[in-house]
Amino acid sequence: MSDRTDPRVTRTTSALRQAVVELASQRPASQITVADLAERARITRATFYNRYSTPLDPLIEALYSDLETGHRLEEQRRAQGYPGPELLHLAVREVADHVERFAAVYRNALGDPADRGVFDALVRHFNDYALSFLERTAGRGLPDVSHQVTAQFLAHGFAGAIRAWLGHPDVTKDDLVEVAVSCAPAWWAAAAATPVER
């Protein structure tokens, strides 16, 4: 059995991600219909429902894919021996760059009370990332407290900082980065340079 993905599936995935990002940049994801998305992506609704339930699903997939690019860069830097404080700063900057690339999507989600899905997904992503970090670096200067609670605390705090940045025109991307780095626990930067165990 081949591990290769069917090129048609790859094209459909790419078309859906591009279409949903374009639509979510124009209006909140909660206001995008499957018919709108299928038409924009030039696929049938049946093709959409073969893989997804709502337009939010491919949108989250697109956002996560972009965030994962930043995580791969972080792993490369860690393998190259970057110091922890620099890794932390660069990782926060990568997330800020991601939010800037998708600013219209996040701002539309921010302005619509019915559209919690985008920020809920961002919190889930940060939570999963924090849990992975905590598990990988356990016993290396980290406090002996619940990883689940710590990850949620960090995830909601970072997502809240992003909301504040997007919601206040006088807050810059540099402000976000500096605040997030300054508020990160001291043990995070100290443990950040730990190589990923495979």
User: Which percent range fits the helix content?
Assistant: over 70%
H-E string = HHHHHHHHHH
| Count of structural domains | 2
Number of strands: 0
CATH topology of the largest domain: Tetracycline Repressor, domain 2
Which CATH first-tier class of the largest domain would you pick?
A: Mainly Alpha
Q: What structural class is derived from the secondary structure elements?
A: mainly alpha
State the major sheet: none
Low-confidence stretches: none
Q: What is the tally of helical segments?
A: 10
The appropriate CATH architecture of the largest domain is Orthogonal Bundle
User: CATH homologous superfamily of the largest domain - what is it?
Assistant: Tetracycline Repressor, domain 2
Specify the overall morphology: globular
User: Which percent band covers the strand fraction?
Assistant: under 5%
Mean pLDDT: 91
Q: Rounded to an integer, what's the Rg over CA atoms?
A: 18 Å
Spatial separation of the terminal alpha carbons? 26 Å
SSE blueprint:
Layout: H1 7-24, H2 34-41, H3 45-51, H4 56-79, H5 84-101, H6 103-110, H7 117-136, H8 147-167, H9 173-183, H10 186-191
